[in-house]
């Protein structure tokens, strides 16, 4: 599953800023003074977003100049009409939030905060404008890579217990213990970027069973990005927020096996592949919890067998017994 595509290039965003310079608006002197830095940051954003440097550290500017850059995002100017178009198309093109994969109303979120003392020069950069749902924006807040120089990341078992989804349990297996030990180290952490990180992939995320409920967790198969995915899941509280949607899709897969009268695991696998193809047709971007779960069912033989066994279980039938009373007997 690929990450979502950037709607515009940074050259188009720089062209919009050049129109501001030509119109001699309030922000024009600041743009002219910081133009070399802004152009460099726009060109190198794909690399710099991982370890960004706030504008106040790149160049000393006064508060009014920083506010002018900050207010560009809210200005009703023709050259910035693409921002409103991006906001309107977010719900039309994407069927789910790129951060959490859940369906909902999407608005634009600044991956790097546009506040005047941080990254006001990136307030109108398309690559920094990510469609997101309100719960994700509230959970993310003003966090950005480098906010805390050393960020302690808890292992998966402790975080699931912390959010009330299960008690803390020991990590079993030599490889899992190695991953958990690395996760406990204090290292810089960041939230995954939907434009540049392949977030919803069974290679990076997996389903784990906690008290009989399937929840989302980082996959140990992608050990190089395990810490990043683990932090992303924990920071946005995805394990708790996506549990209902995950189990709803699993129930749908069980119903599909029953509807297609699958009698073997091979037939159930063909039904799962067909359901996955249907989901991709409805959501071409491919970034959703529903598609992730369908991928997991099609790829994980153990999960497929578990769901197939549920579909073969005889349903509980409620039998009602009634007694017929002949009311005409007393009238003869």
Number of domains: 3
Alpha-carbon distance between the two ends: 78 Å
- Give the oligomer, counting copies of the same chain as homo and different chains as hetero: single chain
Percentage of residues in DSSP E strands: 5-15%
Q: Which term fits the overall shape?
A: elongated
Mean pLDDT across all residues, rounded?
Answer: 80
Low-confidence sequence ranges: 149-172
Describe the strand arrangement of the main beta sheet, using strand numbers.
1-2
Rg, Cα atoms, Å: 26 Å
Instruction: Kindly name the structural category.
Output: mainly alpha
Helix content: 40-55%
Specify the biggest β-sheet. 2 strands, antiparallel
How many strand units? 6
> How many helices in DSSP terms?
15
Order of helices and strands: HHHHHHEEHEHHEEEHHHHHH
Summary?
With 332 residues, this protein is mostly helical.
Give the SSE map.
Layout: H1 10-23, H2 28-43, H3 45-48, H4 55-58, H5 63-71, H6 81-93, E1 106-110, E2 129-133, H7 134-140, E3 151-152, H8 156-162, H9 174-184, E4 186-187, E5 205-210, E6 213-218, H10 226-235, H11 238-241, H12 243-259, H13 265-282, H14 289-299, H15 301-312
Antiparallel strand pairs: 1-2, 3-4, 5-6
Helix pairs in contact: 1-2, 12-14, 12-15, 13-14, 14-15
């Amino acid at each position: 599953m690929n990450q979502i595509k950037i709607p515009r290039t940074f050259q188009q965003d720089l062209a919009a800023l050049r129109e501001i310079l030509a119109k001699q608006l309030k922000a024009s002197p600041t743009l002219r003074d910081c133009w070399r830095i802004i152009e460099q940051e726009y060109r190198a954003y794909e690399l710099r977003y991982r370890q960004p440097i706030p504008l106040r550290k790149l160049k000393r500017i006064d508060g009014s100049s920083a506010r002018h850059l900050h207010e560009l995002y809210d200005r009703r100017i023709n050259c910035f009409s693409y921002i409103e178009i991006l906001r309107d198309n977010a719900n039309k093109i994407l069927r789910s939030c790129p951060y959490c994969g859940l369906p909902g109303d999407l608005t634009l979120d600044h991956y790097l905060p546009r506040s005047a003392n941080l990254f006001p020069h990136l307030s109108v950069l398309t690559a920094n404008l990510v469609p997101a749902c309100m719960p994700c924006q509230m959970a993310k807040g003003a966090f950005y890579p480098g906010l805390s120089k050393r960020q302690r990341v808890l292992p998966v078992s402790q975080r699931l217990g912390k959010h009330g989804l299960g008690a803390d349990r020991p990590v079993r297996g030599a490889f899992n213990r190695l991953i958990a030990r690395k996760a406990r180290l204090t290292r810089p952490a960041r939230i995954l970027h939907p434009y540049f990180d392949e977030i919803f992939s069974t290679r990076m995320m997996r389903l784990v069973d906690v008290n009989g409920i399937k929840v989302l967790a980082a996959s140990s198969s992608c050990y190089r990005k395990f810490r990043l995915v683990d932090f992303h899941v924990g920071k946005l509280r995805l394990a708790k927020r996506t549990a209902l949607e995950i189990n709803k899709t699993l129930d749908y897969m069980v119903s599909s096996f029953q509807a297609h009268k699958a009698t073997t695991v091979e037939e159930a696998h063909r039904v799962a592949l067909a359901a996955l193809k249907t989901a991709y047709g409805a959501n071409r971007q491919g970034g959703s919890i529903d598609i992730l779960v369908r991928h997991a069912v099609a790829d994980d033989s153990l999960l497929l067998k578990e769901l197939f066994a549920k579909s073969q279980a005889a349903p509980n039938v409620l039998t009602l017994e009634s007694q017929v009373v002949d009311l005409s007997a007393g009238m003869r």
